[in-house]
Please model this.
Amino acid sequence: MRSRWSLPSFATAVTFAFLIVSSLSPLESAEARALAPAPGAPVAVGEISGQGYVFTDAVNTPVERDGFSVTHFSTAPAVARPDPGTAKAIAYDQVTARGWGQSEYQCLVALWERESNWNVSAANPTSGAYGIPQSLPGDRMASAGADWRTNPATQITWGLEYIAGRYGTPCGAWQHSEAKGWY
Model:
């Protein structure tokens, strides 16, 4: 049987422990100071395949918090080389032919996964956007070929031209999509 003071004593002890722990700053320990970046130093934020933080050709967005300047890198997850004959393989060849690197291909894969899941006949019933790059309207892709409705190479050619003209690179389009929800 409990004494009538056990619950109030326990509650008081827990409250006191909580106040002590919450008043301690983890950044005040010597170990935390040694691991913390210098104020103003960039810090990569993001995860690729659960294996750490690696970014190349990333676009930076500086953020200030708790006295540290953190640079947020908005880039896409790493992807494997695509299977031959797929729309992604066509895109890979076109991206590298433009002189863009692997990171640009990664951004393109992430962008078009989000937009159409690489479906050549993906149609947005609300906006009317069509195809792999979600051209709005879809018939704008006719400038890349008469077979724009069914040919992934034609759609990818048009989509890369659009991205180059409007955003410079696929990572530029990806960052815009991350910020605005569209590109």
